[in-house]
From TrEMBL:
InterPro entries: AAA+_ATPase, ABC_carbohydrate_import_ATPase, ABC_transporter-like_ATP-bd, P-loop_NTPase. Residues 13-250 form the ABC transporter domain. It comes from the Bacteria. This is ATP-binding cassette domain-containing protein. CDD domains: ABC_Carb_Monos_I. PANTHER family: CARBOHYDRATE TRANSPORT ATP-BINDING PROTEIN MG119-RELATED, SUGAR ABC TRANSPORTER ATP-BINDING PROTEIN. GO terms for molecular function: ATP binding. It comes from Aquipuribacter nitratireducens. Keywords: ATP-binding, Nucleotide-binding. Transmembrane segments: none annotated.
Length: 267
């Protein structure tokens, strides 16, 4: 069950009419986007719709050219990944950025290790890593001292997600977390995604997999040619409707007006 106030009130993350160009290419065109605590927001769109650009701009890798970026209702400037992390925004990219030759604890603390003087505080890191995994009800890892090279794809994804939530995160963005997984591991990761939201995080899930979206999302934001085609509650929509929004920018009376979509296509 999501927290009582899930999805209500001020969004944790809100983008209003954001724009992004790469040289002459206009990639994001006045995009609106909201993510709320306690909810999984699926960000969907065809290849090239602008999902990665949107997420990288939220994460401070790129900067929006125009529009408003609000965090917990306040306008913020996020000009680099450290500033995004400081707000409580973490991204788990598809490559996971794990070091195979290090164990789970070392990977969860990579680059942000606890130190006492000049030595690493292994005991405190191991304790918090374990507590974080226990808090997420992760039971598939036998030991936090296991090297990541010996973990399955699902376990690796779990470690990358646990690393993201270790830092009192408020927003966790997951880029296609089940893309390389089999059926059982996909199920495990989707359950974990749900638990993150149930713990009060705002989870943003980039996905091309409509089964995943329908199974786990509370809200769906569809991008079409760099514009927001729709922001809708998952329970009010169907897979067919989402697919239509992705492929044509509209479905029934939801979505971009044809003229807008055509302008987007021509830009
Ligand atoms: N650094 C860049 N320089 C120039 N153009 C870029 C850059 N990054 C992305 N683009 C362009 O922006 C558009 C949107 O790309 P983006 O990767 O954001 O889409 P996406 O929705 O994430 O697609 P996919 O599902 O294929 O990952 C594409 O036309 C892409 O070529």
């Amino acid at each position: 069950m999501a927290p009582e106030d899930a999805g209500s009130g001020t969004p944790v993350l809100e983008l209003r009419k954001v724009d992004k160009h790469f040289g002459a290419v206009h990639v994001l065109k006045g995009v609106d986007f909201e993510a709320h605590r306690g909810e999984v927001t699926a960000l969907v769109g065809d290849n090239g719709a602008g999902k990665s650009t949107l997420v990288k701009s939220v994460a401070g890798i790129h900067a929006f050219d125009a529009g408003e970026y609000l965090f917990e209702g306040r306008p913020v400037k996020v000009e680099n990944p450290k500033q995004a992390n400081a707000l409580g925004i973490e991204v788990v990219y598809q490559d996971l950025a794990l070091c195979d030759n290090l164990d789970v604890v070392a990977n969860m603390y990579l680059g942000r290790e606890n130190r006492t003087g000049i030595t690493l505080d292994e005991a405190s890191m191991e304790k918090s890593a374990r507590e974080t995994l226990d808090g997420l009800s992760v039971r598939t890892l036998k030991s936090v001292r296991t090297k990541v090279s010996s973990l399955s794809g699902g376990q690796r994804q779990t470690v990358a997600i646990a690393r993201a939530v270790l830092w009192n995160s408020k927003v966790v963005i997951l880029d296609e977390p089940t893309a390389a997984l089999g059926v059982a591991q996909t199920e495990q990761v989707l359950n974990l995604v749900r638990r993150l939201a149930d713990r009060g995080l705002a989870v943003i899930l980039i996905s091309h997999n409509m089964n995943d979206v329908i199974k786990v999302a509370d809200r769906v934001v569809a991008l079409y040619l760099g514009q927001t085609a729709a922001q809708i509650k998952a329970k009010d929509t169907t897979t067919a409707q989402i697919v239509e929004l992705i492929t044509s920018g509209r479905s029934g009376d939801i979505g971009l007006r044809d003229a807008d979509a055509e302008n987007g296509g021509a830009a």
